[in-house]
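B., you asked whether I could sanity-check this one before it goes into the benchmark set. Here's the sequence:
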Amino acid sequence: MAGWVLVKVALLSDCYLPRLGGIEVQVHDLAHHLTRAGHTVEVFTATGDPAYPRSTHPTADDGGVRVHRFDLGLPGGIPINPLAVPEIRRRLGGGGFDVAHVHMGVVSPFAVDMARVALGLGLPTAVTWHCVLDGSAAIHRTIGYAGRWAERGAALSAVSAMAADRVRAILPGGHGDVRVLGNGIDVGTWARTSDRPETEPFRITAIQRLVRRKRPEALVDVLRRTRELVPTSTALSATIVGDGPQRAAIRQATSEHPWISVPGRLTRPALRELHWDAHAFVSMARLEAFGIAALEARTAGLPIVGLAGTGMDDFVHDGVEGLLATDDEDVARALARLATDPDLRTRIRDHNRTTPPEQAWPDIVEATLAEYHRAIEQGRRS
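And here's what the prediction gave me:
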């Protein structure tokens, strides 16, 4: 890859598969794409695996990547284990690693411990935030761990420009060298391979965890409002895919709207088929650090509708890959525009189908390796 020397990488994350979520999937996919590029990768996580209950012996995941699991067996599989620090320090120190890559969420006690351990060992360390530090920013600023990591040579990054701004805000003085290291997408998996003719109804997809932070109730309100704005002669269909504590409430809220379905969680192949038969994708999240579900839909050719000022701004430009809105009413109006303006819909769809996103995995692997070498250089200087 662009002449990079092969490296041995420790990926350190609270969460990993089989637990499902954005960080889990991205860390898994990064591990496998780095491995395919010839690098050696091992994962350290506090997430367990039912196939190996409470085992601390390294095991291979579905693609052969070595995974060190240190779960405490807490209720709900909470990924916390401060007791694992001495053993992880021993394995990192004796594992011949060239670089450690720590993956941070809003609350990541395991990852915070791992960054401290890696830097304490003198291991070049990259740290990537996959979250939006808003309500908790004051706490993170007071604790000051990010500033200390930067002083010790860690290469700091976040998955979008918006998320990177939030990380800079918790550094001393509210500024610092925080790069953007986006999430990756397998373009070949999601890109539409055949031209299916458009048929009614106008199909809207929404893929998200059904938790309050993602605003699923606001999504239902927007879909209802879209139905009011679109002439009754235009049939509509909406599918809200996902699971979470809000699922029962969303099912209840849509019970009188048979054109809205809530099927639960779907596999990647099923999601791909859903996108290929749809006309638009919508997201209502305000605190969206990146929006991997939106990137998948955009790669499948769908026009994206969402709120401006989120991580989606990195790959959705208003009027090009989709329509960006200022508020919930504006989201409903954008969906109504796409439903009633086939020329606009076709123009955005054709652009998305013929123009691969910048976040294709080969490019993200290149950017990740650049962060590793930045960490190595900064570690030498510090």
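One thing to flag: The mean pLDDT is 94. Otherwise nothing jumped out at me.
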